[in-house]
Amino acid sequence: MKRVFLSIAILLFSFASMAQIDVTWGQRFYNIIESCEDAQIVMEDHDGYYMWYLLNEYEGAGEFKLNYYMARIDRDKNVQKIYKMDFGHSSFKIEQTWRSGELIGFVLSRVSEDKAVEKKGSSRKNKQAQQIKTGKANLYYQFFHTKDMRLVGEKPIKFKSYNYFSIEGQKPYLFNFSENKSKLAFGFLTTDTSGKGVNVEIYDDQMRLLWEKPHKLNISNPGYVIKDIAVSNDGKRSLLAINSFSTSKKKIYTDGKTHLIWINEFEERRHEEQLDKAWATDIKCAFGFEEDYLVAGYYSTSTDKPNLAVGAFSFIYDHRRGFKKNSSTLEFKEYETDEDINEKSGLPYPSDMVATVDHLYPMVGGNCIMVGEQKFASKVVPPARRGDLPTGEDANFYRDIIITNIDKTGFVSGSSYIPKRQKTYRGSDQFNSYALTKDRYGIYLMFNDHQANYDDVSFWPVRNYDSDKSRTQVNFVQIYNDGSWRWHEAYNTKINKMPFYKTLFLTFEKEILFLGHYQDNNVIGSVGTR
Predict the structure, then answer these.
(1) CB 316 within 8 Å of CB 324
(2) What does the alpha-carbon distance between residue 82 and residue 50 come to, in Å, rounded to a whole number?
(3) Tens-digit pLDDT profile for residues 309-356
(4) What's the CA gap between 529 and 509, in Å, rounded?
(5) 3-class DSSP string for 5-48
(6) How confident is the model at residue 87, as a pLDDT?
(7) Residues 424-472: pLDDT tens digits?
(8) Rg, the chain, Cα only
(9) How much of the chain is in helix, strand and coil states, percent to nearest 5?
(10) Is 308 in contact with 282 (CB distance < 8 Å)?
(11) H-state helical runs in 44-144
């Protein structure tokens, strides 16, 4: 255990030089008396900031209703005005938010999901069989006028209605913003007599359709998941990232392939790659600032733990001719193994973790920074024999954040871990995982953890954070554009009982705004980055 402590202390060498940073607070939100179901700080103007939030409010007679609100917040982080946003029905869900001049745009959804069915030809014995979800989906948009503090128009405008299918592990449709958030890319999954495909649709920030193009999937492996979509800042090019794999009973994991599709309004380029004695576990795609494009992610080499990420990889392509310019892999350097975990501690085992790629961001230096997280969803296991008790538990574990730097040539130059330990039983994960905000020069993260895991300047994991609001330590991490990072303790419950809620916003003055939950109230806080 001493070896593990030393390695973790070295990993977090910056702890030693960082004290608690200054946090300033506004006044409490006067109409929020419970935790938000959802919230996002979305915009800044000369007068202040704007945040929408979702409350599950008691309507009387035992009934609750989900209501959306927009708050205008002044420069001192105090609430000036609150507007209840009535989209016409409580079934509307905000999917995406962005700024367009003095307007805030919303993409809203209403989805009716059919009963899940297994893929044709599968059987209970075939554990690799993919489940397919089907249903009907409607997408709408509506704008909010910040000066007038009102919704524009009488009701949301429907712009897409379709019957969808979604393979297990895949969303009903793909979405992404361009790097500067001026363009929106949608990928709608389709299936008909001619096969499966993706309809790519590109919109500007006023929700005007710029162009659309259907793409027919041509994947050699029987199993696949469409993982990501990207769009260039000018809106003229798009990318699709696809992970394919074997679904046979005797699965050959090294048959796994990574596919990247480059699309514009008139033509396509198809790239297919296969790692040497390894396979991709998760991927993202992006356009770099020099317009070259890449696909990157995590890979595994263990057939016993096929979803255990052991390293990062990338493939980068020339934007003019489409040829592969470089490929790169780099193994992770683990600081903790299963043998280091005390089985009575309740901490997750490293080998159980599934690393997901959450973001792939181009930076001003031409490099890209990939941000991911280790997660594990445990389930109750029924007893094998009558009379035995079930084992396991229904819980979500969140472990380390992974930071990977990919230089402008496509070379994976390094990966590092930002450690944390979090766990949630059944209920909401609103205080777990992490939140992120960014510009072209840096990325900023904030997350909750248990106080007991921090011993002065070192990280010594002994407990999972489970939204115990009286024992919260809130950490703030600044990631520089070269992939290096610096850890700060923002605050802990020796000062107040306030866990951080998952929304961050980077202001014009390089200040970070966030939402904290204080006892039975919510309040805006801020930290400086300079």
Answers:
(1) yes
(2) 10
(3) 999 999 999 999 999 999 999 999 988 999 999 888 889 999 999 999
(4) 9
(5) HHHHHHHCHHHHHCCCCCEEEEEECCCCCCCCCEEEEEEECCCE
(6) 96
(7) 886 667 788 999 999 988 999 999 999 999 987 788 999 999 876 668 8
(8) 23
(9) 5, 55, 40
(10) no
(11) none
Closest CA to 332 of 347, 313, 314: 313
Long-range contacts of 84-88 (CB under 8 A, 24+ apart): 85/52, 85/144, 85/151, 86/151, 87/142, 87/151, 87/155, 87/156, 88/155, 88/156
Confidence (pTM) = 0.90
Question: Over the stretch 463-509, which tens digit does the pLDDT of each residue have?
Answer: 999 876 668 889 999 999 989 999 988 888 765 567 888 789 999 99
User: If you search the block for the tokens 């979500």, which residue do you land on?
Assistant: 396
Look at the block and give the residue holding tokens 């296991």: 381
Q: What tokens were used for 41?
A: 């700080």
Tokens 């380029």, residue located:
269
Tokens of 245: 């794999």
Whole-angstrom Cα distance, residue 417 to residue 333?
9
For residue 72, what are its two tokens?
């205008």
Backbone angle region of 264, left / alpha / beta, with phi > 0 → left and psi within -120 to 50 → alpha: beta
